[in-house]
Amino acid sequence: MVDLPVFDADNHYYEALDAFTRYIDPAMQKRGIQWATIDGKERLLVGGRINRFIPNPTFEHVSRPGALSEYFRAKSGVGEMRSAFGELEPISTRLECRDRQARLGLMDQQGLEDCIMLPTIGVGMEAALEHDQDACTAVFTAFNRWLDEDWGLNFKDRIYATPYVSLIDLDWAVAELEWALERDVRMVLMRPGSVNTRSGRRTPGDRAHDRFWAHLNEAGVTLAIHGGDSGYFDYEQIWGLTGEVEAFRQPPLKRLLSASPIHDMMASLMSDRLFERFPNLRVATIETGSGWVSPPPPAVAKDRHPTPARFRDRPVRSVHGARLGFTVLRRQRASARWPDGCQAGPVRLRLSPRRRTRCTHFLREGAPRVHRRRRAPDHARQCQSSGHTPTGMIGHRRDG
């Protein structure tokens, strides 16, 4: 064990029962998210349909931390996924799952200096609502207001909660970003996937969305792209799957199909030349794997040779030009995970000896100098020997 302060780039809370309804516009309640008792169990109705993204959406009982450690390390198989979670505990005994002050106490016990705080249910709701843009924006407006009230977008410079944004409605996305910036947000959240606007589907980096990207570029706030429901049901149904997304329950065929939302998301940002237009953008891919990083998408590298004018930079250099494992695409961070083959333990980031310099530097203005942190040598060596990228993260936004 290396004695270094730890920055957790993928910490989660369990949403309160009224996370999506406490601040919902009453006119949108039935078109958004509701609770219903079905066969004696509390279920989420999203857009009027039962949603099974999380099998236990009330989180009345939750698994113990680390219950799936051996599973994700591929050291032990499970016959039925439910049994892999082991003995469940009442959430009433785990205050840190829903209370920010209790979470800070737990972080102190664990030696966590800071963390990015992410939703559990929230990353799976856009796909179920994208057909109704008004309901979708109303739901995430309500969700973000709950998030700010219960967790805060920047709690004591240690817990950085991520409000959810979608380009499904550009005006709403810009307004929501402005609201978050007023609350000292350090990171905003988006799913990997295309955008179902009122004018049809677009890539996130489409020039029609430039007003949002320009605002994010100027603010210097990092965009987190976290795995969830990316709306790939049409593709999956072609292959005979139901298209329904359930966390922790994926049939073998779904795991083996070639479509990868994070690969496609990164490919679209490269193809749209988003980082050429907005050089201060920074993106962190979280819990999506790092298989798309190395080698880079072959088609992208090949595309530049017959059509060099499409890219200002050589795409392979764009992916590998900076320190691999800390930045990719020059302004992106990708996190490896055990299924990608990296067998190292949790990442520990070495802090700079400078006064009160912490491993959460999200710089705000200009073209910032990013302070890189060395990783624990044992972790770096293990990842290097396995050919995979260790996680690298960033620090707090600094004004001026």
Structure, described:
The chain is α/β, with parallel strands linked by helices and about 400 residues long. About 30% of the residues lie in helices and about 15% in strands. The protein has helices at about 70, 80-85, 100-110, 125-130, 135-150, 170-180, 210-220, 235-240, 250-255, 260-270, 275, 300-305, 315-320, 375-385; strands at about 5-10, 35-40, 40-45, 50, 60, 90, 110-120, 160, 185-190, 195, 200, 220-225, 285, 330-335. A 4-stranded parallel beta sheet has the order 9-12-13-14, with no helix packed on it. It has a 3-stranded parallel beta sheet with strand order 1-7-8, with helices on one face. The protein has a 3-stranded antiparallel beta sheet with strand order 2-3-4, with no helix packed on it. The model is unreliable at about 315-330 and about 340-400 (pLDDT under 50).
Structural class: alpha/beta
The termini sit apart by: 37 Å
Within CATH, the superfamily carries the name Metal-dependent hydrolases
Which strand order spans the largest sheet, edge to edge or round the barrel? 9-12-13-14
Query: What is the residue-averaged pLDDT?
Result: 77
Low-confidence stretches are 316-331, 342-400
- Helix count? 14
Biggest beta sheet summary: 4 strands, parallel
CATH fold-level assignment = TIM Barrel
Structure summary, number of beta strands: 14
In the residues, how many domains can be counted? 1
CATH class: Alpha Beta
- C-alpha Rg, in Å? 21 Å
CATH-derived architecture = Alpha-Beta Barrel
Order of helices and strands: EEEEEHHEHEHHEHEEEHEHHHHEHHEH
Question: Given the C-alpha coordinates, what overall shape results?
Answer: globular
